[in-house]
Write a structure and sequence with these properties.
This protein is of the alpha/beta class. It contains 28 helices and 32 strands. It is an enzyme of class 1 (oxidoreductase).
């Protein structure tokens, strides 16, 4: 928790706050920003840093109450705590990398407006501390809205106040003052830095361009999440799409497409839809109980005899919510096996002496072993067998592609259905959670420390394996909640949060420590972690940077990356009335892509009340999504437009999605993936109206860690280079999961984490 140690009202609805955040205070630099989450129900709000004091451990922010979320922030008083305070984020001001002596030869002009005055101060202060004079223009509507005047006066050579109404200082806009200084006072400047409202920065750039005055602007106002995982802050810079949070927030103002940026800025202000998705079944839990009871009464004990006699090759089906009910709520789709169903299904297993299913499992679970215990009714022992091999059994049982891994190797497939290994794994893990079974005791420590970066599947698995060996393990996680893609990427109806929380708690019980809100490469670096006595570091930071098609219209409002769309719903719970994070979804939604993420995004949009179409460039045979997810999507009313590829998104005059122009494809020769390549059919263009377009085209690793860690090589796709044992090109640093492979499955990330843990153990033992 982050305590507010000082609060001061600067102007009406504008407040300065000092927040105790020592890690951020120690690593913050001018030009950077932070993410604030006020409480459990609040959205993630990016705010630029006004000042920082390493000795006091405080970071200063300025907040203007301009909407529900910022009003909530401003309502907090001294002595109260923000739930989360994350950073520093973004690239520091470009001046910090320039030669000081060369900077002293330049004349710098800062132009600040509104709360944009706050981030100007630390930059002007930096120049002052390095003996460089700067001029500052501070703009406001009137004298009552002039803020931080004394602070800026103390660090600038000349401070010029400009008010719209002339109630204080120069009468006119900041642009008028720029013209006045250059033309009337014969001032010459080599560089201008402008920070404030988007419209102000636009006209400052139009003004400075007339004088060939290079101008840097901060695009913090269009930021949504700030960590690089949503893609919502994309902006056109000189014809190239950039992300304000990763590539910025500072850019060459003369190259910024301000008009499209301002339209994007309004996407959550112009449309405020009611969160109308509710559970329409009042007696939902009772309905589940009755359905299970009816199933049990129908099968009873006699079914065991039938299965053993002649139905060994037919699996026990799992009860699910009715499609027309579940597509209106976020409750879990599958009810899971009852105890009796689990015993019956487990009894189908042949307990092979040479089990091929184990070879198909990336973490090599003793599958016959845990299933045998279920068949014998020893549910607690089954969970304990699982705990020897996996840290996330309840997760794997729900989201892993068993049909292409362990179950694909089951010998029963030769005559019928494979054993439902995933559903049995889920049953065993759920039984353990519901009955509070202690799966393993906290081991004796061996005196060695290992750091894990990222609390996703790879990081959690690596941490669990090392903790069992006796290592002191600490996980550094960027988000405010542990779980990584398990909590921000997978919807509640597939993987409930309480399931992930339980798995994480099992790790905490082993002694694993998790520190949230730490951005590696900004809050702290890999080198600094190793300097703290950690003998090895595992990087399991995932692949959270979204991919776009680079087609016309992608920057329109209503175009989401699947990452942003799912994060708003899954992590920040925009679908629940009590939560503040907004989401705007049109009546007709197109989801571009055919993987599991595309299915998740489509099914979420359906639950938000939209008519949803999956647009995929190949046929259904080539869909990379799990068969179960495709089946569920179809049941829930999702439409599939196959052999179709978008080529342009058309917008309305006010910058919102209006339609999607597509072409039809036919399949040609196989490409590098082994799938037949889609080939455009000439003259097949057509237009279909949509109000929302969700890009589910995959993700890549965020470059922040690789860019800030010496000796850490990456490949041409931006993935960390690691050998088969997880060792990177940097001594003592290991990596695995999506950070190495690019976007893949949860179970493959877990396998990489497990392999890396074994390698780290060998590495430390040899030291």
């Amino acid at each position: 928790m982050y305590k507010i140690v000082k609060k001061e009202e600067l102007a009406k609805n504008i407040y300065l706050m000092d927040v105790y955040a020592p890690r951020i205070a120690a690593s913050a630099k001018p030009g950077q920003f932070i993410i604030v989450i006020a409480d459990k129900y609040s959205e993630r709000i990016p705010l630029t840093i006004c000042d920082f004091d390493e000795k006091k451990g405080t970071v200063q922010i300025v907040v203007q109450a301009a909407g529900g979320s910022t009003e909530k922030l401003c309502s907090f008083e001294e002595g109260e705590y923000f739930r989360d305070f994350v950073g520093p984020l973004g690239r520091p001001s470009e001046f910090l990398d320039e030669d000081i002596e060369e900077l002293k030869k330049k004349k710098i002009l800062f132009v600040a407006g509104g709360v944009g005055t706050a981030p100007v101060y630390p930059q002007a202060k930096w120049f002052f501390e390095h003996g460089i004079d700067v001029d500052v223009i501070l703009g406001a509507k009137s004298k009552d809205f002039v803020i931080l005047e004394d602070k800026l006066k103390s660090v600038s050579k000349n401070l010029y106040i400009a008010t719209d109404d002339g109630s204080y200082g120069f009468k006119g806009m900041v642009t008028d003052k720029i013209v006045d200084l250059i033309e009337n006072e014969n001032k010459h400047y080599d560089q201008c830095v402008s920070i404030g409202p988007m419209i102000m920065m636009k006209f400052v750039c139009l003004t400075t361009k007339k004088y060939d005055l290079p101008t840097t602007v901060s695009l913090n106002p269009i930021m949504v999440d700030g960590t690089g995982m949503c893609g919502a802050c994309r902006v056109n810079i000189g014809g190239v799409t950039k992300f304000a949070c990763v590539d910025g927030p500072e850019f060459d103002g003369h190259l910024v497409d301000f008009d499209s940026a301002m339209k994007r800025q309004r996407q959550y202000k112009d449309k405020k839809e009611e969160k109308s998705v509710k559970d329409h079944v009042c007696t939902f839990d009772k309905a589940i109980e009755k359905q299970h009871r009816d199933i049990e009464e129908e099968r009873h004990v006699d079914d065991v005899k039938i299965i053993k006699a002649k139905d060994r090759f037919k699996k026990i089906p799992v009860a699910e919510q009715d499609p027309d009910v579940r597509n209106k709520n976020f409750k879990e789709v599958s009810y899971g096996y009852t105890a009796q169903e689990a015993v019956i299904e487990a009894s189908r297993c042949l307990n092979c002496k040479n089990p091929q299913c184990v070879k198909g499992c990336p973490v090599s679970i003793d599958i016959p072993g845990f299933i045998k215990e279920i068949a014998n009714g020893n549910f607690e022992q089954s969970a304990k067998v699982l705990s020897l091999y996996t840290a996330l059994p309840a997760v794997c049982g729900r989201v892993c592609p068993q049909e292409s891994q362990c179950e694909a190797k089951c010998v029963l497939l030769n005559k019928g259905d494979a054993v439902s290994i995933g559903k049995l794994e889920r049953f065993s893990a759920d039984y353990s959670r519901e009955h509070n079974i202690v799966l393993s005791e906290k081991p004796r420590l061996n005196g060695h420390k290992v750091a894990i970066i990222g609390a996703g599947p790879a990081g959690l698995t690596c941490a669990g394996e090392l903790a069992k060996m006796g290592y002191s393990v600490k996980i550094f996680e960027a988000l405010h909640q542990a779980g990584g893609v398990l909590v921000y990427g997978i919807p509640e109806f597939r993987l409930p949060d309480d399931v992930v929380e339980s798995e994480v708690q099992n790790l905490l019980n082993l002694g694993v420590e998790i520190e949230n809100d730490v951005i590696i490469g900004r809050t702290i670096t890999v080198e600094e972690i190793m300097d703290q006595g950690f003998e090895a570091v595992f990087i399991g930071s995932g692949a959270g940077l979204p991919t776009f098609m680079n087609i016309p219209g992608e920057n329109l409002n209503g175009v989401y990356s699947a990452n942003e769309f799912l994060t708003r719903n899954n992590l920040m719970r925009s679908f629940e009335e009590d939560y503040d994070t907004p989401i705007n979804v049109g009546k007709k939604v197109a989801v571009i892509g055919g993987g599991n993420v595309a299915m998740d995004a489509a099914r979420v949009a359906k639950r938000l009340g939209s008519d949803v179409s999956i647009v995929y460039r190949r046929t259904e045979t080539e869909l990379p999504a799990r068969l179960e997810e495709v089946h569920h999507a179809k049941e829930e009313g999702i439409k599939f437009e196959m052999l179709t590829a978008p080529i342009e998104i058309t917008g309305t005059e006010d910058g919102w999605v209006k339609s999607l122009t597509c072409v039809r494809n036919e399949l040609g020769e196989p490409d590098a993936s082994g799938r037949r390549r889609p080939v455009k059919i000439e003259g097949s263009e057509f237009v279909e109206e949509f109000e929302t377009v969700i890009m589910a085209l995959g993700t890549s690793p965020n470059p922040l860690i690789s860019h800030t860690t010496k000796g850490l090589d990456i490949n041409k796709w931006g993935c960390l280079v690691a050998d088969e044992n997880g060792a990177t090109t940097r001594e003592g640093v290991f990596a695995g999961g999506d950070a190495v492979t690019g976007a893949a499955t949860v179970i493959l990330a877990m396998g990489a984490g497990k392999t890396a843990a074994e390698s780290i153990d060998k590495y430390i033992r040899k030291m």
